[in-house]
Design goal:
21% strand, elongated, single chain, 9 strands, 3-stranded antiparallel sheet, alpha/beta, 4-stranded parallel sheet
Length: 201
């Protein structure tokens, strides 16, 4: 059965063909679904309480590659239209708050807020907005039982970090916010000389 599917991303212009979102959208399109992509800046809640978005979709029914699919989506050939989010069957929240610059601080949580509104209107929302809100940074893992999570230290204290690294011999340093392996370091006891640079990063 044909479904109307929406994907919220940071910005359509910054999407890349290798992203999972584009592959999901391509597959859904090729299977005959009505697929719309929208950036967080394309979302609106009108005075009557309806959730709207400037959505974009491709014009053809089949695409051989995500590169061709995305090229059309980012071109003037794509279909651009004001759509009602409430009319979607499924809405995928695929925007990454950690990729938003400080000049777009408003964009970091907007997908979660609009996702909650869409769910209230009966739209199936993937990923769950409340779950995304709870997991907005790596502190989320501290809610899991100790038996299934690694020993962790969360601090900005340089000396505490060095003591922790010395005790456990090998550690992973990572920022609370971020994704894609940016500023993530594997450190061993023998790399104590580089520890300051890793902590600074």
């Amino acid at each position: 059965e044909k479904m109307k599917i929406g994907f919220i991303v940071n910005e359509i212009e910054t999407e890349k063909a290798k992203y999972t979102t584009i592959r999901l959208a391509l597959t859904a399109t090729n299977r005959g679904h009505d697929v719309w992509i929208m950036g967080v800046g394309d979302l609106a809640n009108d005075p009557k309480g309806y959730i709207k978005a400037w959505g974009k979709k491709v014009s053809r029914k089949k695409y051989n590659s995500s590169e061709i699919y995305l090229k059309e989506l980012q071109s003037e050939k794509c279909i651009s239209q004001r759509i009602a989010i409430e009319e979607l069957d499924v809405l995928f929240l695929r925007n990454d708050p950690s990729h938003e610059p400080s000049s777009r601080a408003w964009a970091r949580s907007i997908g979660i807020h609009f996702g909650r509104l869409a769910a209230k209107h009966g739209v199936i929302v993937v990923n769950d907005p409340s779950g995304l809100s709870n997991a907005s940074n790596k502190m989320y893992f501290q809610q899991f039982p100790e038996t299934i999570r690694p020993k962790s230290l969360i601090t900005r204290d340089r000396d505490e970090l060095k003591k922790f690294a010395k005790k456990y011999k090998k550690i992973i340093l990572k920022p609370l916010l971020g994704s894609g392996g940016k500023n993530v370091f594997f450190a061993s006891r023998t790399q104590s000389g580089n520890m300051n640079q890793m902590i600074d990063a």
